[in-house]
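Re: beginner question about structure tokens

> Can someone show what the tokenized structure looks like for a real chain? I only ever see the sequence side.

Sure, here's an example I had lying around. Input first:
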Amino acid sequence: MDYVEIEKLKWRSRRSMLELDLYFERFILGGSFSKLTEQELIDYQYLLTLDDGDLLLLFQEKEVLANVEMQKLVIKIVNANF
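And the corresponding structure tokens:
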């Protein structure tokens, strides 16, 4: 992904729920976002298409994604907040 696409992902990470904003903000500003591989960026892009309620359940570890690689990304986002 090029610089513009990555910046768009960061912008799309802004959500309507404060809790989600906090997860994404800490993940991005803490430096974890910049370490993502190309595939992880694609997975991240997919995560951003999910509804806020579904994302919150994933981040609170009340739900789990069937795709193992995407679930690993969710765990990275959650762990960046501690």
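Each token stands for a local structural state, so reading them left to right follows the chain. The helical segments are 3-12, 18-29, 38-47, 52-59, 68-79.
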